[in-house]
User: Fold this.
Amino acid sequence: MSRQIYSFHGGVHPEENKQISTQHPIAIAPVPSRIIVPVHQHIGQPAKPCVAVGDQVLKGQIIAEAEGYISVAAHAPTSGVVTAIAPHPVPHPSGLSDICIHITPDGQDLWTERKPIDYRNLNASALRNRLRDMGIAGLGGAVFPTFIKLNPGVPQKVQTLLLNGGECEPWITCDDMTMREHAAEILQGAAIMRFMLRAESVLVGIEDNKPQAIAAMQQAATQCDFPIEIITIPTLYPGGGAKQMIKTVTGQEVPSGGRSTDVGVATFNIGTALAIHRAVNHGEPLISRVVTVTGNVGQAQNFEALIGTPINELVALTGNSVDPVTGYLMGGPMMGIELAQIIDVPMVKATNCILVKSAKLFPPPPPAMPCIRCTRCADACPADLQPQELFWFARSKDFDRAQKYRLFDCIECGCCSYVCPSHIPLVQYYRYAKSEISAKQKDQEAADHARERHETRIARIEREKQERADKLAQKAASKPAAESATDDPAAAAKKAAIQAAIERAKAAKAESDVTAAPTE
Amino acid sequence: MLSSPYISEKTSVSIIMLKVMLALVPAIAAYVWYFGPAILISLTIASVTALGLETIAVKLRGLPAKPFLMDGSALVTAWLLALSIPSIAPWWLIVVGTFFAIVVAKHLYGGLGNNLFNPAMVGYAVLIISFPVQMTHWAAPYSLAGEHLGLLDAFNYIVSGVLPDGWKLDAISTATPLDTIRTQLQLHRTVTEISQMPIFGSIGGQGSEIIALLFLAGGVYLWLTRIITWHIPVAFLGALTLISGLFYLYNPGQYASPWFHLATGGAMLGAFFIATDPVSGATTPKGKLIFGAGIGALTYLIRALGGYPDGVAFAVLLMNITVPLIDAYTQPPVYGHKGNKK
Ligand code: SF4
Ligand code: SF4
Assistant:
């Protein structure tokens, strides 16, 4: 393979801890005792429930429809009865609740009718709508509705379809195992995406710490009727991030604030490709995914589990924890979120890993010390930021300067916190600064709106007053045509005064028009 | 609330400082070998003073003393100061220097991480300005003096100023090579003649050239263990070589060779251990190059044309002032802001 590999700046090598969950093949998790499907599992607007409490649903049946442009549907993961449509804690850093459709499985696991999609003979937008209704969203973490990304836009905007087989977070192995076991199906999904995007080349990036996945994908690639390049990339966190992966395989940088398509690349997680294959070729909506359950558990393993499975039921499948449990993470240790002990939260489309913590595996960090400006953070930052400066600005609430130093290009990968010898929770400061800035901007926008509304209202009142004055004046001016003939000096003076008033009103109106103009 | 990442590398400021001190050990051993054990006493006095002052300062600022003492930064400052001044200097000189380094330069500026100036160099500058005479009594190399003060005699001398019977200060102390060049040039001798004098050794001074080599080795160790990056030392030594080389080429009789400048005085210690102080130095890669080169150039200019024999301390302090400016104008482009060229 002669493709040139580029390197991105920074990156770290945390201990991988992956081997403990790759000892066994992916197991099918049994249907849980209850199912909780959040209507908002993707970026964009929540789906709208379209079933009622008491309804009997079949496996794969739509239970919430996509609403708005950026949205995808949700489906019943198994057959059963809808027992509630009510708020329930969802896996979110805030620990907040969201509307969930609760289903009590009937144990039959009966499918609704499954119809494969003849994608080659369907027009593009109809095909995308079908994928939306199949609930396909990115399984790599961002959970962006996939159908939107499958729009090639202007002709040949997307030359390259990049399947992201990078899984750089420690502990997580779901993509690795999926590639080992479902390589051919992933590439069938890739074929569909390639067709939809009219992409010229198909690349798959996989880190060199997954030799079996690479071999399986290479083997599958030889069976494909279109060229696919399996690219081995160095193992370096966060090399599996879309921006870093694009840089590694193409040498291009996604412009700040832009999308990967700006450099002609569309990136999808390999799990997404598999989901598309199942949706299109088998008519199965996205109702399950592979999830790694690992860390402080009896036997770490990957499971094909139904979306909506309570996380505690999933964890129970791995046997008893070795040490006392100190918490649960969804995702990996670098970017995952704490599930704050509420573990009957359901797994969602974004759940790639449940990492059970113990004090031994995740000792509390030592107290933070002052920054010594050693710039290890800057050396590790894949966004080429100067984290020590951002920290300084965030701490002193100098948000303007934080933005000038590109705070919003921070991808919150955690590399800086990871290497900091002073154990400063840097990312926490950036999240804080970002949310403060966003809140301020929102306040500012609200204030601007209010001011605009107020100004428009004042202008309207002014205008109406002037219009009334105009009318009055005109009336007064037209009526006494005869009177003026009497050469009554008083009448003449009155007329002049009225004329002056009209002029004044006109001038004022012109002025108010000018001030009102920018608000339009 | 806790947030990601939930793991971190097993590093700490203490480990970094420990490695810095470890990297100094070979050179210190050579120092003892060539100049006698007095340096061990001054290192000890400086260390004890620094830890004491650090404790008081941290407590006065209402902070827990232990983590701040454990971070090792006070010790490193103490060592760098002790290595920069004559090893047989009286005890109060070290104490005053350490006081200015720890209390004034560090804690009055807000403590570790906030100091604008390199603390050790502030201590040194105060001493050389206030006590120029005491600062010129350097221990003579063994090969010249023929004998060293033993550990106990050295202790006595440093603490009480009393030499053992029959010893004279002249016999055990000498001017440094840099000092010698400066005074001899004023007597209108040429560099070639001057460097025939025994104090000069083969390049940079009897014994001190070996010590310089070991500082270099320690620096390479720090670079290999990623405690420092190459930028500052390379730029520092590069600029020093370049400028001294130009002057040397222009008039070898009047100006010493670049080799001499690299191997003598504070060049190696400064390049790898002092200028690389992260807190008071530039932070961007380009900024580090400018910062290092500035120190190298100023060091030479002060040595050759200025009022002090060695220029490292003042060069570092002068460049410290420019750090905020350098950093602000050398921010590297951020991912996605570079414009793609392929
Ligand atoms: S790694 Fe930590 S101590 Fe070093 S510069 Fe960055 S924030 Fe400061
Ligand atoms: S979290 Fe942000 S600042 Fe820190 S290394 Fe990642 S991108 Fe850079």
Remarks:
- Residues 482-486, 511-520 of chain A have pLDDT under 50 and may be disordered.
- Residues 426-478 of chain A form the longest helix (53 residues).
- The longest strand of chain A covers residues 80-89.
